Amino acid sequence: MAYNLLKGKRGIITGALDANSIAWKIAQKAHQEGATFVLTNAPIAMRMGEINKLAEETGSTIIPADATSIEDLTNLYTQAQEVLGGKIDFVLHSIGMSVNIRKNIPYDELNYDYFAKGIDVSAMSFHKMLAVAKKLDAINEGGSVVGLTYMAAQRTYPFYTDMADIKAMLESIARSFGYYYGLDKKVRVNTVSQSPTKTTAGTGVKGFGDLYSFAEAISPLGNADAESCADYCITLFSDLTRMVTMQNLFHDGGYSSTGVSVEVMQKLDAANNI
Ligand SMILES: NC(=O)c1ccc[n+]([C@@H]2O[C@H](COP(=O)([O-])OP(=O)(O)OC[C@H]3O[C@@H](n4cnc5c(N)ncnc54)[C@H](O)[C@@H]3O)[C@@H](O)[C@H]2O)c1
User: Fold this and answer.
1) Which of 29, 49, 117, 189 is the most buried (most CB within 10 A)?
2) Residue 45 has what pLDDT?
């Protein structure tokens, strides 16, 4: 059911790689809620061509941009305002990549060039997207910027390796930039900490299947899927959350507040033959 929550709003949505991407679902929901937006992704990701289907479905223009490039981001905001006919109301940062994870390098043996690349792509890009927007004064007062994160920023998950530190930085940027952007332009900046979700980036983490099942067994509501994450992000883009900023918001079916569940205890009992 749609509520017209984003009627008349203009947005920029990063990170829709394929139909499993969280950003893909967010774009579909934003469209249903009356928003107009541009889609963007790294030029290399465009080669897969999947994003064209989403652009067609949502009547959106695609503007390629490597989120680590100030030049690309400047072009993105400039063109987006031209295409959409005015300043931007919401921005989704849905970008994550770790070469150390891709190459299965353990945390205590990290390659620092890969680490630096991961920071640039997955966290510093958030700062760059905010800084370029602010410099160009591209976001309307009351606008909303959301980045996606994971709870490894607060607790240790061995296989999440350098992305844990990178997500901690991403969440810190939301707080720090949220202060400055809020003071100057009343623009809100938040991160949404999402349950494990079966996407290209998610399933690339070693042991993802077990992690997914564990979180499912711990969370009283079960894992939050990409579609419900999209619903939550729509509320954050809407005026209903106009006083929410500088927050890391858990969207995880209660996982982050649960110590252990009866289900997990029973499984351990069964495994130990107690
Ligand atoms: N899947 C999960 O379990 C999960 C859980 C919590 C948070 N997240 C976060 O959600 C976000 C989206 O990931 P997803 O799970 O939808 O996976 P995904 O693989 O579909 O999306 C990641 C996106 O990042 C884009 N990207 C990579 N490098 C880029 C660059 N230089 N410039 C621009 N874009 C670039 C990719 O092309 C891709 O579209 C990420 O920040 C991820 O860490 C995912």
Assistant:
1) 189
2) 86
